[in-house]
Amino acid sequence: MSASKNGSQLDPQTFWNNKARTFPRYSPGEDNYEARVLALARANGVVFPGARILDVGCGAGLYTLRLAQEAREVVAVDFSEAMLAILREDARQLGIQNLKIIQADWLSVAIPGQFDVVFCSMCPALALAGGFDKLLAQRAAQVVYLGWNGLLRSEVQDGLYERYQISPKKFDSSTRTRAILEEKGLQYQSIPVEGTWRLTYAKEVLLDSVLTNLHDYGVEPDLGELAAYLEKFRQPDGQYLEITDYKILMILWKNL
Is the model's pLDDT at 8 over the cut of 70? Predict the structure, then answer.
């Protein structure tokens, strides 16, 4: 094992390309997390049907593909080639044709035109200098922002943080977002989104996922020890369960 470190050690593009190997993919239905989030946005006045939507930091497209099924057009931006490959594949399988995908860094990408809705979920680029200002510069009748609200705790990861003496990153991006909006005098609405994710994986997938996270902290674990640690999360059906508690804040405002 290498010496443990704190903070991100991988460049962001490498991290997210690696993360794509184990990232959840779009799934249909109205009883999953993404469906509930969009339903909550609708219940608070966000209009998706017939809209032109910008999806900032779209990743593998868990929201993008849902939005495209009711929007007039969706423009999806992300810098991870691996994440966008998943999005393109799933869009083809769904027969979605009103989707424009742009692979680019958020700070440098040229955004085409004006939008009815700007949607952004957990985009790390907004924390970079100028990242949030660029979001505020997008003219849109409605902005839907999802940010961490002080909690992202996985039983699997917590044990590894302790084992390798890692101080985990703080997940509180919504605090900064609200402060910026208040500083600029923008009125906003905030809606808590809290709960627990219960995700099952094949062992090799969970092993890949936790390795990506440990590498981002500069830790190179012994693979045999790591595999043995994961056995405590093995279920009777042979799958491995990761339980994650989260607190997220949905923040809605207008950029006019």
Answer: no
Q: What per-residue string of b and e applies to 111-134 under the rule 16 or more CB within 10 Å gives b?
A: beeebbbbbbbebebbeeeebbeb
Say how many C-beta atoms besides its own lie within 10 A of residue 161's C-beta.
18
Convert the pLDDT of each residue in 28-81 to its tens digit: 999 999 999 999 999 999 999 999 999 999 999 999 999 999 999 999 999 999
- How is the chain split into domains, by residue range? 12-152+167-199+249-255
Closest among 29, 25, 28 to 87, alpha carbons compared:
25
Judged on CB neighbours under 10 Å (0-12, 13-18, 19+), 239 is middle
Query: Which of the four CATH numbers 3.40.50.150, 3.30.300.30, 1.10.3720.10, 1.10.357.10 does domain 12-152+167-199+249-255 have?
Result: 3.40.50.150
Task: Tell me the residue length of the chain.
Answer: 256
Q: Name the β-bridge partners of 143.
A: 118, 253
The DSSP call for residue 79 is S
> Does 201 have pLDDT greater than 50?
yes
- Helices assigned H by DSSP within the chain: 12-19, 33-43, 64-68, 81-94, 131-137, 155-163, 173-183, 203-216, 223-230
